[in-house]
Amino acid sequence: MKKFIKDYNHEELVDFFTKIGEKEYRARQLINWLYEKNVNDFSLMTNFSKELRKFLDDEFILSPLTIEDRLISGIDGTEKYLFKTFDNHYIESVLIKNEMSDEGRLTVCISSQVGCPMGCRFCETAKIGFVRNLSCGEILDQICHVRRISGLKNNNIVFMGMGEPFLNYDNVLKAADIMNYSFGFHLSVRKITISTSGIYPAIERFIDERRPYNIALSLNDTEPTKRLENMPVEKKYPFKMISDLLSEKTTASRNRITIEYVMRKDNISKEDAKRLKKMFKYANIKLNLIPLNEGNHNLPIPTKEEIEDFVKELEIMNVPVSIRKSMGSDISGACGQLSGKKYKQEKELLCK
Question: Active site residue: 22, 79, 92, 260, which one?
Answer without folding.
Answer: 92
